[in-house]
Structure formats: C-alpha cells, structure tokens
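Q: what sequence does this backbone want?
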C-alpha cells in the first residue's frame, strides 16, 4: 500500500477505505464492461490511486482550493473519482465519449456519495463549442488518453482567464509532444519534474495562458 501522507488528505484511512469500495465497484463493473485490467489491490492503489493523486504534488493548491476541473477522456474515472474522493472542495466534470464508461463513473460517484463530481458523455471538441463550457474551468487535465496537442486544441474554450492545463505523461511522451505544443504561442508550456515510481516514471505537461 502506498504512503498517502504527502497528499494532505483530511483522513487518509477514510480515503483508503473508500478507495477499497471503489475497487470493488470497478471489479463489479468490469463484469459488464471492459473498464480496466488493473483491479488487483496493490496494483490498483499504485497505478490508479497514487498515480491520480500525483497532480496534487505538482500543484498543492488542488488540495485546498475549490477548483473547477475538467477531466477529458476520463475512462473509468481516473483521476476524476480519486480526486473527488481525496479533495471534497474540488468540483470535477468527468468527460468521455463512451457511454458505458460514463455510466460507471456516474454509478460509482452515486455509490460513494460524491456530490462534487458530474459525469458527461460527449466529445470534448463538441462540448468546446457549447456556451456552458466556455471559460468554465480552472484546470483541464487528462490521463492515458490522447496526445496533449490534440486535447489542448479541442478544449480551447474550456479554460477561464487564470486556468491551466496539466496532462499526465511519461517523460518520453512529454519530450515528443512539447515541440508541437510550443507552436501555440497563446500558452506557456513546460514539463514538470519527473517522479520515478515503482511502476515507471511520471511527469506533467502543463500550459498556462500568457499574460
């Protein structure tokens, strides 16, 4: 079991217990839809829970501020569900084009009584054109989905004036994507420090609007 002390959780044991409930829901959901192959306890806590929380090490304010976050291509709800469990002040919109995955995220959020998470089926590029998504979010994130340039291009209207992007990446992915991102001179792009973990390496590609 990973150590969650660094993540400023209000109650680490309660959080861990609720993640165990999430794991049980995931196993049950896998019987109806192929959500994820990662359900064994240690692997689940390392590769889904701990990995999802790493964004709060890069941006500690996530643990305290009532950010509005869009999780694009949320899949089975990572990092959405984990962040909603960890930091109740957050307001998270989980977005995915696959109905069965959004159905799972909705049902898991209901079972865990997560009132700070909304799950929406749709493509980001289409939601980007809707008025209710315009300049709404403080943070747009994505994990294990499309390349950063594609997500950024499809969510140009999502961020508010002070909002920023933070995409979960490996160092190799970041190195490959950064030159293309740099062509968009509306944002200042950078790559975070790399954290070496038991299961690999993780960094974040982040972008904020230039003054």
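A:
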């Amino acid at each position: 079991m990973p150590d969650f002390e660094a993540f400023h959780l209000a109650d680490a044991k309660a959080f861990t217990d609720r993640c165990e409930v999430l794991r049980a829901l995931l196993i049950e959901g896998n019987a109806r839809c192929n959500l994820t192959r990662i359900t064994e306890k240690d692997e689940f806590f390392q590769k889904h829970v701990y990995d999802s929380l790493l964004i709060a090490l890069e941006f500690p304010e996530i643990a305290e501020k009532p950010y509005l976050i869009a999780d694009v291509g949320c899949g089975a709800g990572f990092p959405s569900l984990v962040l909603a469990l960890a930091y109740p002040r957050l307001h998270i919109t989980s977005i995915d084009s696959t109905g069965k995955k959004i159905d799972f995220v909705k049902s898991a959020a209901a079972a865990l009584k997560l009132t700070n998470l909304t799950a929406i089926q749709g493509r980001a590029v289409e939601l980007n054109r809707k008025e209710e998504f315009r300049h709404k979010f403080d943070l747009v994130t994505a994990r294990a989905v499309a390349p950063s340039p594609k997500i950024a291009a499809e969510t140009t209207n999502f961020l508010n004036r002070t909002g920023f992007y933070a995409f979960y990446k490996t160092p190799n992915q970041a190195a490959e994507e950064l030159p293309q991102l740099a062509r968009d001179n509306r944002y200042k792009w950078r790559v975070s420090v790399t954290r070496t973990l038991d299961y690999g390496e993780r960094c974040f590609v982040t972008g904020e609007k230039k003054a």
